[in-house]
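Researcher: Let's run the pair from yesterday's discussion. Sequence first, then tokens, for each.
Model: Starting with the first of the pair.
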Amino acid sequence: MIKKILLLAMIALLGWGGFACGKPTPTPEAALSLQGKNILMIIAHQDFRDEEYKEPRQVFDAKGATVSVASSSLEVAKGMLGAEVKPDLLLKDVAVSDYDVIVFVGGSGAQEYWNDPVAHAIAQEAVAQGKVLAAICIAPATLAKSGVLNGKNATVFSSEAEALKAGGANYTGASVERDGLIITADGPQAATKFAEEIATALEE
């Protein structure tokens, strides 16, 4: 009787082991849905918001995208919470045609781009070329001031709601808002959802 129980137990273990080994795994193609896509993340040289860079970057990297970072200086950029990022290129050297999506990262330092003509030109060119254009936290104010949010649904960190309205946007107050190829988010708590919305737009 004991031998029979042991035999049944062994068969059960082998059966479950075989089942586990036979579980389907995602194909590389499915996992790397953004392979071949080029994403540019624009960060402030000082005081970008760490999560708004790190969390989307993790999503983009995991899906196989090629990510580049631009800033106003090639010196190591510093995040509000201590992150350090070495930019790949200067903002003035960005060629929008090289990328599938342009992402403006927020944080208090993002104010440096609010009235920057180079940042405005990048946003305008992204729209003109049919690229995905995204911004989070206070960075949507840069888009508003560039004129690309006129008539668009958009969100932003609440302190800059009036800046969006002044730029002709329909401020929705949502955590993440998408209107066509323009995606905006209101702050670090929405960083991952923001990235996933960008990924969805690129996958379409």
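Model: Moving on to the second of the pair.
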Amino acid sequence: MSSEVLYVATEDGWQLPLHIYEAQKPRFKHPVVMVHGLGANRLNLDLDARLSIARAARDRGFSVYLLELRGAGLSRPPEGKQVGDLEWGFGEHREMDLPVAVAKVLEHSHARGLHAFGHSMGGMLWCAYATGRPPELRSVSAVGSPLVSALRLNARERHLLNFATRFAPANALRHVPIKPLLFAAGTFISVSSKLADGMLLNAENCDEEVMARMAKEAINDVPLKLLTEFAAHSRGEVRDGDPFVFEKDLDKVEVPVNVVSGSVDRVAPKDAVLALAQRLKSRDVRYREMGKASGDRADYGHGDLLVGRNAPEEVFPLLLDFLETVD
């Protein structure tokens, strides 16, 4: 567990938790701020003592702050409001959640800069943030984070995305209940053994008890606004206020960036993750595909990039070595 949870208030009243992991023997100047992905919470970054990139970074000597975005995990809605009555999208995460978290981390740590780390949408948020060239940013680590405009989903994933955008309005929902929806879309064969039939992670690369806990505790509902934003941009639709226009500005990112993909990732296919890396023009852009073809013990999917059976031995050192070299 983290040693402390620090709450930070957004402009519109959300209380967002920063889970703090203080290094017992600090070795580095800049803390690491970690952000989870869409439909997830802190557990994908800190599941248990072994499967925790947050604790691994702490043990390496970094101070770590793990942010849970609005609507996820232990976040609290504005006073007098219910989460189910509120809507938000990528823009709210980028413009309201990240800036206040960054300010609080700098204040709490007394550091002048920080390293940004994100899984899936978390990495995309940090890339969007980096296009503004914020002076406090030292690096970006994007794990399983695709270029949305380059997403070419398989039939089942495309069906689920389209099903979700139709399902919620038909039921007057502002949020898409991910776990029931996966059942309704016919993709759950066994929650504990398949976790959405291999969609959210590669079941062959995860232990049974890990998949059971991920299915039970690590999945959060997704606001319809956010899901429809993803769906529209992936189809190439141009809308006013498209929050993913930052993808055109990725060449403005100046800090070192480490991009990691999974060879059998079906949520963020490796070609779309590679496309994000290729769009970056920083002097230090690193890309690594995790899979058997690269000499790894298993082919990695989406969530198992961080909770896979061999992730602590294969993925974590790759991510932490990067942070150490650019601190």
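Researcher: Give me one sentence on the second I can quote.
Model: The beta strands are 4-9, 15-21, 32-35, 64-67, 114-119, 137-143, 175-176, 222-223, 257-262, 285-290.
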